[in-house]
Amino acid sequence: MAHSSHRSSRRIRLAAAVAASAMALSLAACGTSGPTGSGGGSATGAATMWALSGQPKEGLRQDTVDAFNKTNPDEKLEVTFFQNDAYKTKIRTAIGAGQAPTLIYGWGGGTLKAYADAGQVEDLTSFFADNPEVKDRLFPGSFGAATIDDKIYAMPIQDVQPIVLFYNKKVFADAGVEPPKTWDDLMSLVTTFNEKGIAPISLAGQSRWTSMMWLEYLFDRIGGPEVFNDIFLGKPDAWSNPAALEALEKAQDLVAADGFIKGFNSITADSNADQALLYTGKAAMMLHGGWTYGSMKADGQNFVQDGNLGFVSFPTIEGGVGDAENVVGNPANYLSISSSASDEQKKIAEDYLKTGLFTEAEIDGLIENGAVPVVNGVDDKLAATDDADYLTFVYQLAGNAPSFQQSWDQALSPTAAEALLNNIDQLFSRSITPEEFAANMNKTIGK
Questions:
Q1: Dihedral, CA atoms, 305, 307, 308, 314, nearest 10 degrees?
Q2: Class for domain 161-328+413-442, per CATH?
Q3: Please, what sign has the CA dihedral across residues 309, 207, 81, 116?
Q4: pLDDT one-digit tens code per residue, 240-280
C-alpha cells in the first residue's frame, strides 16, 4: 500500500474540554437496510451509490445526496443503504457481474486493489490532478489506502479512526507514574502495575484483530511503514524482514512479562469487556481504536466525564527508524467510481466527489456526533465542542501523520488476513516462534 510522505504543516492549538459521545458510530454499519434493488444500474440513467445504513452517518449521507440533487437539477444521484455484512456480500456479487453502482463504498486496501487489478474501478489520479482543491482539502495520509501502484482509485470520505494508547489517569496518578514515551517506559510500567496487582494492559485477545494493533505499531516504530508496504506489495519473504522479526519478538516479550491481563485470550472486543477493565481501574492501559472513546463515555460510569481517560501516541522504540508521528488504523472510508458505469453516470459521480462531499453541513454533523472528518482546517470547530481535548488530539494525530497505515486485516486480501489473525493468536499464546510466524505468513504472500 502506498502512503503519503507529505507531512502536514499545520499544528493545531486546542482548547481543552471534557468529552462527548459517539466515536463508536465510526464502527459503522448497524441499522436497517434500505431497499435492495437488483444491481447497480438505474432505469432512469441516474448515477447510483450504495452506502451503509445506520444513523447518524446514513442521515448525513442522504442529506449530501439530496443537497447535490437540488443544486444540480440536470444531474441525479440515487443512494441505497445496506447493513454492513449484507453490503459486503452484495457489492462483491454486483461488481463481479458488471452491475456495480456508479459509486462504490469501501475501505480501501486489499479489496480495492483486487478491484483495481481487475479494471473494475476508475483510476482517479487525473481527476485529482485536474481538481487539486479537492485533494488538498483532505488529510494527506488518508490517500494511502486508496492508492495502488502510485495511482489513486478512491476518494477518502467521512471520518478518521486511528489506533490510540488509552490509559486510566487515576490509576497512573495513584502509582505516581507517567504514560510511556518509549518502549522501555512501557516495559517498566508493566513491572510497576503488576507489583500493585493491577493488569498493565487490557486486551481482548480472543478477537485477534485487537492483538494485531500491537504488531502494526511495533512493525512501524522499528522498521517504518516500508516493512508492511513490502508485504502488501507481495515482496517474497517480506514477513522475514529483520525489523518484522524484532517486532514479533517484542510482542512475545510483552506477553512473557505479563503485560496483558490474565486470561486475555478469552476476552472479546464485541462485549466491550476490554474497555470496562480500563475504566473500572482493573487495567492501566489499552491500545484500541478511536471509536472506543464514545462507548467508554456512554458506559464508563462518568470515567470520561470526570477527566480520568488519558490518551497518547504509541511509544518510540530505541534504534527504530519509524517516525514517531506515524499512525495506524482506519484512515477513512472510501468512494470509487465503477468502470462499468456510463460516461454520463461517471460525470455525475465526479461532480458529487467535487461538490457533494464535505459540505459544511456534513462536516458539522460528523463533529456533532463525536467524529473527526478527514478534512484540513476544522480545528476551530473541534475546539468549540465538549470533546475538544480528544477530538483535537485525534485531528492532530491523523492530520500530521507522515504515514497512516491501514489496519492490516483490511489492507490484505481476505485469504491473507484470515491467516494473519490465526497466526497472531498463536504468536500471543506463544505456541509459535517469531520465525514460525514469519514462515507461515510468507506462504500467504500473493494469495
A1: 110
A2: alpha beta
A3: positive
A4: 999 999 999 999 999 999 999 999 999 998 889 999 999 99
